[in-house]
Amino acid sequence: MPMNSSTQQPLPASGSIAVIWDYDCTLVDTRRKNFNVTRAIITDMTGQDPDRFEPLTSLASYEAALLRTANWRDLYQQWFDLSTVDTDRAGALWTKYQLEDTTPTPLLPGIPEVLARLGHLPHGVLSQNGQTIITHVLEANGLEGYFQAVVGFEDVDFARQKPAPDGLLLCLERLTRQRPGLVFYIGDHETDALCAEKGRQALAQRQPDIRLISIGALYCIDTRPPWAERFDHLASQPADIAAIVERYLGNSTDKG
After folding, report:
1. Could you count the other beta carbons within 10 Å of the beta carbon of residue 242?
2. CATH architecture of 5-28+106-249
């Protein structure tokens, strides 16, 4: 269902087409692992029991704090009182602790089917998770062949992480060389909606013949948050993503 006036009338795409995914809770259920890794990093950085910090007392508290912050840097500074320098140091520890932690990160149900359905299109990942971690999980699930570009937090200056559009534009450049056409960006957080908005503004100035469509993946969220309205479309299940993309391409199989 269209949510933004910029896409009230979906049109068949022309030129290049690309699909860019956020990673955490969009492709993969990383909630428990990210919670455990954050507890380990904060213990390392502060030398304190992580239970001292409200967002680290339970997975539910962690998810609630994430929904109230713009990105992981904001989370670390707002809730754990880390300076900018210490937040940079914490970010540098992310891949180390991710690799050491053995918490499973299963694909979200329906994701393999959506990728197969849209497999004729180039796909990329834009995430504030680590590139090494993302690539490893995609390879472990036999999905690496769908993704021609993976942009992790290491690829973008710490000061220009989402919601700044730099990573989105970089991923688009790697996928299509920013040729005219249509790009879909799928994310699960207000930061992703803002990143898409900023990306659209940047493209309007640099590459006005690229059309950017945002899709909010709400299948990891219990209730629809107010910021969901900032996405052009919403997906309550992964299959909705394929249906939205296919409508724009003019080859929808939907009956109603």
Report:
1. 21
2. 3-Layer(aba) Sandwich (3.40)
Q: Which DSSP state fits 27? A: T
Question: Whole-model pTM?
Answer: 0.85
Q: Are 61 and 54 in contact (CB under 8 A)?
A: yes
- CA–CA dist 145, 115 (Å, integer): 10
**Using one digit for the tens of pLDDT, what is the confidence trace for 10-42?**
444 457 899 999 999 999 999 999 999 999 999
Bin 223: left if φ > 0, else alpha if -120 < ψ < 50, else beta.
beta
Burial of 162 (0-12, 13-18, 19+ CB in 10 A): buried
Residues 6+ apart with CB under 8 A from 190: 67, 70, 225, 227, 230
Give the range among 99-103, 111-115, 169-173 with minimum mean pLDDT: 99-103
Domain boundaries, the chain: 5-28+106-249, 31-100
Q: Could you tell me which residues are beta bridge partners of residue 28? A: 24, 107
Distance CA(83)–CA(66), nearest Å, equals 18
- Closest Cα to residue 15, out of 161, 173, 211, 169? 211
Conformation bin of residue 16: beta by default, left when phi > 0, alpha when psi is -120 to 50: beta
The tens digit of pLDDT for each residue in 182-197 reads: 999 999 999 999 999 9
